[in-house]
Amino acid sequence: MNFPLAGVSGPELAPLSETEAEALRSLHNACVHLDRERGAALSHALHLRESAAIVGDYLSGTAFPQHPRALEELSEAALAYERQAEAIVWRYASAYAVLAITVLDRLVSERPPLDADAVEELCQEPTIGRLRAALSIPSSRLIAPSDGEQQDEVPIGSHALTAVEEVRAEVLRGGEKPKDEQAVDASRLSAVRPVHVTPLGLSLSFTLPVATTASWEIYKYLKRE
């Protein structure tokens, strides 16, 4: 997946700052590379599990099942690595989504470029509250309608937002004591998510496409006539 702003430089970048462009590029490339490695790790883990099953069937009834047992152990180790990789991808993908949406929002609102400190902060995994706020921005505020059609008020990250809200609700009702909503929103999903929730599982996987969509909208904004 190519970076949407690849090849755009110099005067063409205006009113996007070099700092914003470099941060977007770095997060995009990090997410694409990490997600590719995560996919390879998952594929390897599944291959090992399948091999263990095949060898186990072949050696069924023998007194020494060390071969399939070893493959099963290695498949579990590979799967654990994939889960770690997924957690890392989430941190960068959620940061990429918030940064891209924030930059797009400030462009269409004609606000000045973000300073280096603000960009650096946005390159970190966002709090749940900040992520919810970014994903909640309606498309009509960010994306110009085409062919005379009027943009609706559906949030730009509606599918990802639905998943984040579901996980947030689980966090709030989890445990023996009720949790404070403000404290949860000030937390990061990677730190408070329930054990059974995989960072990119189900609808949470929409987060990276949202980031890419926002980056493409930045490109279209810069290329507008």
Helix and strand topology:
Elements (H helix, E strand, L loop, with lengths): L17 H41 L7 H43 L7 H7 L5 H8 L3 H4 L15 H16 L7 H5 L3 H4 L14 H17 L2
String of helices and strands: HHHHHHHHH
Low-confidence stretches: none
- The number of strands is 0
**Strand percent estimate:** under 5%
Rounded to an integer in angstroms, the radius of gyration calculated over CA atoms is: 21 Å
| Overall 3D form | globular
Main sheet overview: none
Supply the helix-strand structural class. Answer: mainly alpha
Helix content class: 55-70%
Counted by DSSP, the helix tally is 9
Roughly what is the average pLDDT, rounded to an integer? 88
Distance between the termini: 26 Å
Walkthrough of the structure:
By secondary structure, the chain is mainly alpha-helical. It has helices spanning about 20-60, 65-110, 115-120, 130-135, 140, 160-175, 180-185, 190, 205-225. Helix 2 crosses helix 4 (about 130-135), helix 2 (about 65-110) runs parallel beside helix 9 and helix 4 runs antiparallel to helix 6 (about 160-175). The mean pLDDT is about 90.
